[in-house]
Amino acid sequence: MLRHPTLGKLRGLESPLTIQYRNLPYAQFNGRFREASIRDDPVSVDDAVYDATQWGPLCPQIPDGINFDFALAGAELPYTKRRIDEEHGLNAVVTVPKKHADGKLLPVLVWVHGSSGFRRALGETCYRLGILGLLASKELNSGGNFGLKDQILGFQWLQKHISGFGGDPNNITAFGESAGAMLLSTLLQLPTPLFKKAMVMSGSATLRPSKTEKQQEALYNDVVSALDLTEKSSEERKMLLYEIPYEDMIAKLPPLIHVGPSVESRFLDDVVTLSTLSKSTSPSWCTEIVIGDCFHDATCFKTRILNKPNNAEYFIGCINSVLVPEQAQNVIHAYSLSPLDSAETSLVKCIELLTDLRWYLPILYIDIGLEKTARAPKVSRYHFHQPNKFDCQWNGLAAHLFDITLLLQNHRHLLGQDAIRLGEEMADRVFSLAYGSGFVSKHEDDGSGNTVVVWGPDGASKLLRREEYDAELRRGRGMVLLGLGPDVCERLAGTIQFGSSR
């Protein structure tokens, strides 16, 4: 039993190496489409011991969304199906090593989960997702961003209470992948200090950029239409939106509706674009940021975009519709696109182009922004090239989520020795980041910040200079896309992804 100085008596779940404290409420739910408030009261009542051995409920989300993540990773695992509870889903998990020096506060690692699944790490906070976490409209008098603000409360709760678990509130490292990385990238635009270091994996604020008021109103109208509320009066519609059971709401809405953060006065001031990334970087309160991608990150778009009989034909049409002829030919040549390609060859080439547009380019533009910023946090880069070897559709590709599969090691018993070894090397770098030695150590870099960590494709790490990496492993394609300019690249990506340049 732990006598926590502010939370009270807690009983955690013991394993051979750790004690895990689950279902710790960090915020008070104040109603749908309303901001939550931080919980500062003890969790134990009348000096009783709080049972922190059971998983807390999750915030509402697509049913069995974890199976989508397992499909991307390439192999399913058994998991405990957790209860969904809109009111009590704002809870945290804290995992503490059993053996550590008494009185010495340890670095804190916080896993910012994505839209579903992959929730086993040293610490995490659940937050509101999708429409219930991000919907904004004048009619609801809602500025949205509830999921973002939930995360802010989670980090503020950790800053107040983590020392009682033996963690250092001044040395918090946040890491997240995909939607979790998009959220972290957005939090890095804010003036509020939340963590000391961040690792943004396969996602940035440009992947699902903040929506303007006009865009949010259009999304709101789409939601109203999907829920068959268009013909209702404004008051009836608002009442129903607040009262419709979340299960019914999720069932009626498209599963992949394009929600995102909102531009909101005195909170999130502007839309983050490739152009803004090229002019500035993240705030000084974060001392080190790690950014990276997987070579085939766009595998996560397979069911939404890359499901045509001939992907190359569609991509070539999009390229020709956006770019002038010379630019179009340069891009088509760089990715060796041909309408005569087989379906399999076409798919892989288009995955690589979409990955570069949506994942690799933001990294390159952050580099450009750093060169223009006098006072900037240290930024390190990695790129993941280890092929997935599971018997799945992504066999042979460095697919989206496969880096997390190796890093978190939940699939360890299914991996080959090269993948296990690489996962351990990846974890060593994350712990080095958390302990303050740097993701890239001083003896690995000449002080220019020009060193890139490459994971795979042969089960090992190597270091390259940034220009070497683009020339050798990206085949110079990054420079081809940079030559188009940020606005043109975003129009091209939007046209491919949505059928228009929105």
Can you describe what's shown?
InterPro entries: AB_hydrolase_fold, CarbesteraseB, Type-B_Carboxylest/Lipase. This protein has 502 residues and is of the alpha/beta class. It has 2 domains: 2-252, Rossmann fold (3-Layer(aba) Sandwich), CATH 3.40.50; 303-498, no CATH class. It has 16 helices and 16 strands. The protein has helices spanning 66-73, 130-134, 146-161, 179-187, 213-226, 234-243, 246-252, 274-277, 311-322, 325-334, 343-371, 402-408, 417-435, 466-472, 477-482, 486-498, and strands at residues 2-4, 8-11, 13-14, 18-25, 27-28, 37-38, 50-51, 91-97, 106-112, 123-125, 167-177, 197-201, 288-294, 378-384, 451-455, 461-465. Strands 9-11-12-13-14-15-16 form a 7-stranded mixed β-sheet, sandwiched between helices. A hairpin with a 5-residue loop joins strand 15 and strand 16 (461-465). Helix 9 (311-322) packs antiparallel against helix 10 (325-334) and helix 12 crosses helix 13 (417-435). The chain starts with a strand and ends with a helix.
